[in-house]
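Sanity check

After download, print the first record. It should look like this:
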Amino acid sequence: GYTFIPPEQMIPVLEQVAEYYNQNKYKLDTILPETSQPESAVPKKKEVNNDIAKDVVNEILPHYDAKNGGFGGEPKFPMPDALKLLLLEYTKNMDDRILQIVKTTLDSMLGIFDYTAGGFFRYSVTADWQNPHYEKMLDVNAKLMQVYVLAYEATGNANYRDAAEKTIKYMTDTLSNGKDRFYGSQDADGEAAYYGKNQGERGKMPMPAVDKNVYTDWSCSAINAFIDAVI
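Expected structure tokens:
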């Protein structure tokens, strides 16, 4: 599995897949796991209770990267839903260990924040958050803005408020038409040169293209985050 494959690397990957399939298509039934389950194997429904949240938190914590913040290795993704759950868990139980995990992660994730135009890049190529993949996604920015708002409320850290406010401005100015719709993303292709320029040179380059497709679920995430920010 891959997160991203540059075009020049895609051809050999597809050739490898095609070759593997041609050599093994007659025995796939024996080497692939069973994908369907008999009806009797489907788990029975259970009542929703607070133990579910605790179970999920206990699944998240072992993946914490104590050195760099965040969860897992490289490429390092923000995982705002996990951070939001941890913040909610902290507000319930006031567990300082969980708060410290969130704070370390939020501080480290500022490495993929665009301090000039605002907003967060999609992920870091490296585990230390210092090499952004320059695409900006609506859903990522909406959820991260919400997390930084919640973290500011919990800690009073002005850096979190600043990041949230600049993300709001970025989403309003760039990932929306300013009136009645949000846009899906801002492109990454070729943008390393754009974001690598200093402040004086950036004004001479065209802004990375914005994908103006509208996605209902991402737009709902943005609306929800804006409501939280206003409240």
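If your output differs, re-run the checksum step. Summary of this record's structure: The mean pLDDT is 87.
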